[in-house]
Design a protein that fits this description.
By secondary structure, the protein is an alpha/beta fold. It has 11 helices and 8 strands. Helix 9 packs antiparallel against helix 10.
């Protein structure tokens, strides 16, 4: 266990403002872990450039040349956080025994890595980094985030409460993850599906020390919707139940309309009839929209397009150069 090779996988999209400080802090942490003999000296930090538009990739190359503790891969284009993370995990699993994923802004406390490794030493294959509190979040973000996790539980999705993508996973866990071929990724829900022994480590999330969040409200909503529709068919069942409820209501309205008709009071129900038509029309459109989302996901899955394409791999290039020498 003491000779285990650790790779820390970090997706990067336009992170030039934070990368130098992130590198500095992670270098200190990795050297400390190596000195304590918690990890092998062959351990590395792997940056994954997700088609950044700034100088992120140039910085990754520069950092790699200056210090072999750091390596990187570059995707051919922007594929989104989850695909970039998956690309890093799938690449790192071929070179490491344990892999930890985290964000580039270091809001996730790197001191929790020690405890994660200790838990792995105890025999756990997956260790989830869980936020102990959300005091530094805005009221809106805190409320919506906590509501999302609770809603996912209601829908039957097994995900870890207040856990993002800060986790430790062993090589064999990632080998099983590779067997999951879906295009619409929601890794927070996929890891619990794999199984194996798991536990949690609690930490306090820090404020971002530079740059802007890569998850504005629109992306957060899309991410949440992907999680719901990729792991639960309960919205479809809800539509079915709602359809039966509306059917029974319609029967009641039909009986009411017939009674009003035979008593000669047909005009007085105009307002009620108009509201009913609009309600049923809106319900139908909403139902079709939700069904359409699922059909769209089936369409994406049947195309089976690659989820990411690695254009450059600094470690692979480094090895080739040294072999030729």
């Amino acid at each position: 266990m003491k000779d285990r090779v650790l790779y820390i996988v970090i997706p990067c999209y336009n992170e030039e403002e934070v990368l130098q400080e992130t590198t500095k802090q992670l270098k200190e942490k990795m050297n400390s872990l190596i000195q304590k003999k918690k990890i092998s000296k062959d351990s590395k930090v792997m940056y994954v450039n997700d088609g950044s538009k700034d100088k992120t990739w140039e910085l990754i190359e520069k950092i790699h040349k200056q210090d072999s503790l750091f390596t990187g891969i570059g995707l051919s284009r922007n594929r989104g956080h989850q695909n970039a993370l998956l690309a890093g995990l799938m690449t790192a699993k071929e070179r490491a025994d344990v892999i930890i994923s985290m964000d580039a802004d270091l809001q996730d406390d790197i001191n929790a890595i020690d405890e994660m490794l200790d838990k792995h030493q105890e025999g756990y294959d997956v260790v989830y980094g869980v936020r102990s509190a959300r005091k530094k979040d805005s009221f809106f973000k805190r409320t919506t985030a906590e509501g999302f996790y609770k809603f996912m539980k209601v829908l039957g999705v097994d995900c870890i409460y207040n856990h993002a993508d800060y986790r430790l996973a062993t090589k064999r866990v990632l080998e099983e993850l590779e067997r999951y071929k879906e295009v619409n990724l929601f890794l927070r829900g996929m890891f619990p599906l794999i199984g194996f022994s798991s536990t949690v480590v609690y930490y306090e999330r820090k404020e971002r020390f530079a740059g802007e969040s890569k998850y504005p409200l629109k992306k957060m909503l899309n991410f949440a919707w992907d999680g719901i529709t990729s792991f639960s068919i309960k919205p479809l069942r809800f539509i079915c139940i709602l359809g039966f409820i509306v059917l029974f209501i319609s029967i009641g309205i039909m009986i009411y309309s017939l009674i009003r008709h035979f008593t000669g009071n047909t005009v007085s129900g105009w307002t009620f009839l108009s509201i009913s038509i609009w309600f049923i029309g809106g319900l139908q459109l909403t139902s079709i929209g939700i069904i359409g989302e699922y059909i769209g996901k089936v369409y994406s899955e049947t195309k089976a397009r690659p989820r990411f394409i690695i254009e450059k791999d600094l470690e692979e290039t480094y090895e080739k150069v040294h072999k030729t020498k």
